[in-house]
Structure to design on (761 residues):
């Protein structure tokens, strides 16, 4: 099975590289690969989910959970997305939908995905994600559990979501025979709190001028780290990041040899191989010092009320509820990281982000940060024109001078 | 029919009512009406989007962008406020953009669950209560329970009349054209029910007493998202077919809401709206397909035309399973994506003509 081979090769390859030289990035990807291998280990049950779900609950029940967009990103990175996108199109899924989701549907139709016991979709961040998990349920002939994330945060809405978590736990038990071990959940939350505190330090260090890490090294960081943050290995990875960056900051060594511009990247990175970031780094000394998705917006989780804490975190996610939450964070990041400009890839099919692009631009303009919209598909490279996009970025960088 | 339409037009141009704009059929119109305000569904322009693309990406729902164009161009009747429902990503963003860039005093967003269990009924009840309180606070008024109860009864009556209209259209398809039905449905979303109900009731009585000369035509079910402009329906009719029913947010999903006669009013509304005829945004695709199946059986449908707006993820994701269902049932179908306007109607005409010819 292709996915198993992918994870096995990833773990083997990176395992050897880590023996040569232990780096935080290698460790991050290595641990993610090891988690992926667990999907094929009969000790664990498998869950496919949307991107923002309480992974801690799954872990506490012995369920390995991956978000479906991971598959799209993985296939795009391997240069294989086009085949699966085509398969989804043949099935009748519209080419106007998000390619992360279409890619995973194509992969499922080609029986690439390990058969899940559990499918959980949340209403945040988007309709397409939830719909695609439901379609996966249809393809795999499995029931899907939906989490309705309330729009506003209040005591009542936390209780509403906690009640849904309890229903979800019952659903997982019914499908897998596994029960929630509440002490294990508390331990997992302690672990998550520790690793996240370390990562907060990492991002704090990215505020240093020059930033001690490059945009390339930070690609997809937080959304991948979320998968392992509640494992002891996640703490090890976080510790390594802190160690590496502390060393660089103490010696005033930047991720780039000469950092001339600092950039904020909004939402999705482009997942297939391309040289946009490298070109920005090499030709302009422009470093993506912070991604919107690398922001830790929540306080330490209260292990004594684990479900309430997880519910609060999920409701307060910047991609949930009022857009002002997200706008506030973008402005805060722009100021605190002293960025010169922001890049917003208007990922084709991403309604919740593309629909807000003028609001983002105007908000960042209020803090003196210009923003460029790039019309791009982050997973489907069939229509990708690096030259055209680079021309636009060149124009943008000229403006920043 | 002409008189009825003229009457509705005359009501619409009266300027003495306080209008609350809305978009989605999950909006609790009864609460607006009980506040002494008139719900006024915002219908986009029948022309390509212009200004809105500077605010939202062109790959956002064309209905949403068209409504935004209306607001930016000042082509909406003067509104006291607008109520949004968190029905989809596009509508959620419209709420943000509308608040920021259009001159409007009162905005409210109702968070509509996609799940339909007991927990979700309670949640929607809370949301409807919040909406009621928001109107009361902004407009400095109170909505007493008995007044809300009366509004619920009025809208129940309206829906019952619209159901009667839909039943009549089966028997009197030469008198009640689908393009007229579309107009009537549009009026139902903009005219106070106390005026609309009397006039529609009178129209239905006249039609019931009329002899029709039924002509054998292929019976079409029109399903999908929203159609506000009649061009596609007129094409279907001009090709010699009859649209005998629909499953649209601008059609039967407006009235397929059953409010109970007894019960606490807001609770009654929450239950009724959550369980009404679902649009694609309600997450259980099987329910949408079941409804299509029911309508096919009930009305001896020979062909289904599925019209959806481009970029409408909630409906587009349902298409593969809907196609499979129709194929298995042996029902011929045509799937069209449109931009909400008549501008691409030439291409649509060719496909519809070929489809109806195929139905024989």
């Amino acid at each position: 099975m292709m996915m198993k081979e992918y994870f096995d090769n990833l773990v083997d390859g990176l395992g050897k590289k880590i023996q040569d030289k232990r780096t935080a990035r290698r460790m991050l990807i290595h641990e993610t690969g090891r988690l992926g291998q667990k999907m094929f280990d009969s000790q664990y049950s498998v869950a496919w989910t949307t991107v923002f779900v309480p992974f801690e609950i799954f872990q506490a029940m012995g369920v390995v959970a991956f978000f479906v967009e991971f598959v799209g990103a993985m296939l795009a990175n391997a240069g294989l997305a086009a085949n699966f996108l085509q398969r989804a199109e043949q099935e009748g899924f519209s080419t106007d939908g998000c390619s992360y989701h279409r890619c995973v549907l194509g992969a499922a139709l080609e029986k690439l995905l390990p058969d899940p016991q559990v499918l959980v979709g949340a209403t945040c961040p988007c309709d397409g994600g939830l719909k695609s998990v439901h379609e996966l349920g249809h393809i795999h002939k499995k029931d899907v559990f939906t989490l309705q994330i309330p729009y506003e945060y209040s005591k009542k809405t936390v209780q509403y979501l906690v009640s849904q978590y309890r229903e979800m736990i019952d659903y997982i038990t019914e499908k897998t025979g596994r029960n929630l071990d509440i002490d294990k959940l508390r331990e997992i939350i302690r672990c998550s709190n520790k690793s996240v505190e370390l990562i907060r330090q990492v991002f704090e260090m990215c505020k240093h001028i020059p930033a001690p890490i490059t945009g390339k090294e930070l690609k997809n960081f937080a959304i991948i780290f979320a998968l392992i943050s509640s494992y002891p290995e996640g703490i090890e990875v976080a510790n390594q990041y802190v160690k590496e960056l502390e060393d660089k900051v103490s010696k005033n060594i930047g991720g780039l040899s000469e950092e001339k511009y600092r950039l904020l990247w909004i939402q999705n990175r482009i997942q297939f191989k391309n040289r946009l970031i490298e070109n920005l780094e090499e030709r302009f000394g422009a470093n993506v010092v912070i991604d919107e998705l690398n922001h830790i917006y929540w306080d330490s989780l209260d292990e004594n009320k684990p479900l309430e804490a997880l519910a609060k975190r999920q409701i307060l996610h910047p991609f949930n509820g009022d857009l002002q939450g997200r706008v506030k964070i973008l402005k805060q990041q722009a100021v605190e990281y002293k960025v010169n400009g922001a890049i917003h890839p208007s990922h084709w099919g991403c309604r919740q982000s593309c629909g807000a692009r003028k609001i983002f631009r105007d908000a960042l303009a209020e803090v003196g940060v210009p923003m460029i919209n790039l019309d791009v598909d982050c997973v489907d490279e069939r229509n990708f024109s690096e030259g055209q996009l680079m021309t636009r970025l060149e124009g943008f960088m000229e403006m920043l001078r | 029919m002409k008189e009825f339409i003229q009457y509705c037009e005359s009501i619409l141009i009266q300027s003495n009512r306080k209008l609350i704009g809305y978009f989605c059929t999950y909006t609790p119109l009864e609460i607006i009406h009980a506040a002494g305000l008139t719900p006024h569904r915002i219908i986009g322009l029948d022309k390509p989007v212009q200004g809105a693309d500077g605010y939202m990406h062109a790959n956002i729902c064309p209905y949403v962008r068209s409504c935004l164009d209306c607001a930016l161009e000042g082509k909406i009747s003067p509104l006291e406020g607008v109520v949004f429902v968190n029905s989809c990503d596009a509508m959620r963003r419209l709420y943000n953009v509308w608040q920021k860039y259009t001159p409007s005093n009162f905005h409210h967003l109702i968070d509509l669950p996609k799940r339909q269990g007991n927990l979700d009924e309670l949640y929607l009840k809370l949301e409807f209560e919040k909406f009621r309180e928001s109107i009361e606070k902004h407009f400095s008024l109170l909505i007493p329970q008995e007044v809300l109860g009366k509004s619920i009864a009025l809208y129940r009556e309206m829906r019952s009349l619209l159901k009667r209209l839909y039943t009549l259209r089966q028997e009197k398809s030469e008198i009640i054209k689908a393009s007229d039905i579309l107009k009537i449905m549009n009026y139902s979303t903009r005219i106070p029910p106390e005026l609309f109900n009397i006039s529609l009731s009178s129209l239905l009585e006249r039609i019931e007493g009329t002899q029709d000369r039924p002509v054998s035509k292929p019976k079409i079910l029109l399903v999908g998202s929203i159609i506000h402009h009649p061009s596609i329906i007129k094409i279907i009719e001009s090709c010699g077919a009859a649209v005998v029913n629909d499953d649209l947010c601008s059609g039967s999903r407006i009235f397929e809401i059953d409010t109970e006669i007894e019960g606490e009013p807001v609770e009654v509304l929450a239950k009724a709206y959550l369980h009404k005829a679902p649009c694609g945004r309600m997450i259980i695709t099987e329910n949408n397909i079941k409804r299509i199946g029911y309508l096919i059986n009930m009305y001896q449908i020979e062909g289904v035309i599925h019209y959806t707006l481009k970029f409408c993820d909630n409906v587009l994701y349902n298409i593969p399973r809907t196609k499979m269902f129709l194929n298995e049932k042996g029902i011929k179908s045509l799937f069209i994506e449109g931009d909400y306007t008549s501008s691409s109607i030439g291409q649509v005409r060719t496909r519809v003509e070929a489809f109806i010819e195929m139905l024989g």
Q: What stands out?
A: The CA atoms of residues 106 and 138 of chain B lie 7 Å apart. Chain B touches chain A at residues 54-57, 59-61, 64, 86, 88-90, 92-94, 96-97, 100-101, 109, 111, 113-115, 117, 119-120, 122-123, 126, 281, 283, 285, 310-311, 313-314, 316-317, 319-321, 323, 337 (CB under 8 Å).
